[in-house]
């Protein structure tokens, strides 16, 4: 089992980013559906938790076929997706219980917390999941490399400047001197109990999640002028609109 703790900063504020998170996930999923991939939403409904309070539950199908390396495609069906369940009690979220019918010993668990700091909170999760061996990775949305196929100059924080908020571009050392700043803390646990493939699969999944986190937060910042004036009600309406369009697109491609 591999566990990573991944702090990732953005030049935004936690209360401000709630809308940005929903907008970015919806728009990104719809864009990916144009390529035959993306996230198909099965359920999206209010959920009450006795500890975390009111939130939102989602169940999604994450289509991944073209993102798999050749060694993985050799042992997976041509049409491949993972069913993912998530509970969003912003600024705390849980993503877990992914199901894959032909990989019963595969699991991913992600906890997320958002705080207004530059990534210096220690053991923010107070979780027994990180008492053992784990790796801490600080992710930099401006200067960490992403796969070339995902690079868009308009989404590069080193060059982007927000017309509405005045934020950006981000220079070397931006985390130390940029205000406001928030950090998305991720606790990522990956388990794949198949002898001979365990290490390779767990390392691959951590790499994919790292890339998704970097790309998603780069887009959230680069798209800030699109969502910064939206209310929570407006972004929920946008989310519903995008989900319907994305599901229709994926449904026609994966009957």
Automatic annotation (TrEMBL):
InterPro entries found in the cross-reference section: PI_transfer, PI_transfer_N, START-like_dom_sf
Family annotation (Pfam families): IP_trans
Domain Phosphatidylinositol transfer protein N-terminal: 9-243
Protein's UniProt keywords contain Ubl conjugation: no
Signal peptide: none
Similarity comment text for this entry: Belongs to the PtdIns transfer protein family. PI transfer class IIB subfamily.
Function, as annotated: Catalyzes the transfer of phosphatidylinositol (PI) and phosphatidic acid (PA) between membranes. Binds PA derived from the phospholipase D signaling pathway and among the cellular PA species, preferably binds to the C16:0/16:1 and C16:1/18:1 PA species.
UniProt name for this protein: Cytoplasmic phosphatidylinositol transfer protein 1
Species of origin: Otus sunia (Oriental scops-owl)
């Amino acid at each position: 089992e591999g566990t990573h703790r991944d702090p990732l900063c953005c030049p935004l504020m936690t209360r401000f980013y709630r809308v940005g998170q929903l907008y970015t996930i919806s728009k990104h999923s719809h864009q990916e559906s144009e390529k035959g991939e993306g996230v198909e939403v099965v359920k999206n409904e209010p959920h009450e938790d006795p500890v975390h309070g009111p939130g939102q539950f989602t169940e999604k199908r994450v289509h991944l076929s073209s993102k798999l390396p050749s060694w993985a495609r050799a042992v997976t069906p041509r049409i491949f997706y993972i069913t993912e369940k998530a509970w969003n009690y912003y600024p705390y979220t849980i993503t877990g219980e992914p199901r894959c019918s032909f990989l019963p010993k595969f699991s991913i668990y992600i906890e997320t917390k958002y705080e207004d700091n530059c990534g210096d909170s220690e053991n923010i999760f107070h979780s027994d999941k990180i008492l053992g061996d784990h790796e801490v990775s600080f992710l930099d949305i401006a200067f960490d490399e992403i796969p070339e196929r995902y690079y868009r100059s308009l989404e590069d924080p080193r060059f982007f400047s927000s017309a509405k908020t005045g934020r950006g571009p981000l220079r070397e050392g931006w985390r130390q001197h940029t205000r406001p700043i928030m950090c998305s803390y991720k606790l990522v646990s990956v388990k794949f109990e198949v002898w001979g493939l365990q290490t390779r699969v767990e390392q691959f999944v951590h790499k994919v999640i790292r890339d998704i986190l970097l790309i998603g937060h780069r887009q959230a910042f680069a798209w800030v002028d699109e969502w910064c004036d939206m209310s929570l009600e407006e972004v929920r309406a946008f989310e519903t609109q995008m989900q319907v369009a994305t599901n229709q697109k994926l449904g026609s491609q994966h009957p």
